[in-house]
Model the fold of this input.
Amino acid sequence: MHLARRSSLIYIVFTLVWAVVIFYLSTMPGPQLPRIDWLMTPDKFGHAAVYGILAMGIFFSIKSCYTNSKTVYRWSFLLASGYGAAMELIQFSFFPDRYFELWDIVANIIGAFVALWLLKIIYH
Done:
């Protein structure tokens, strides 16, 4: 197997496992944290970190598929952010112990954006 395809496969597997971990953590019952309507609580830093890692995994998984790096960054951002928004909607719709929080989506988007921005600085 070609080295680039093998490393891409490793990133794909990592990213899928990471997405499953996010799903598990997002849907497991647990004590509800008090609502604090301020963006950067420790919970929000956790959201940003988790979705930043997801965005980087997506980036490395798909970068060999596209010749235009802007496309890779765009898709990585959209997929990670979309997954974060979908997880909040799933929590709200199907898990009574969990609740929808707009600020979590904002933190997910910020995490994806910052991670990809750092990758862009490092690789360009």
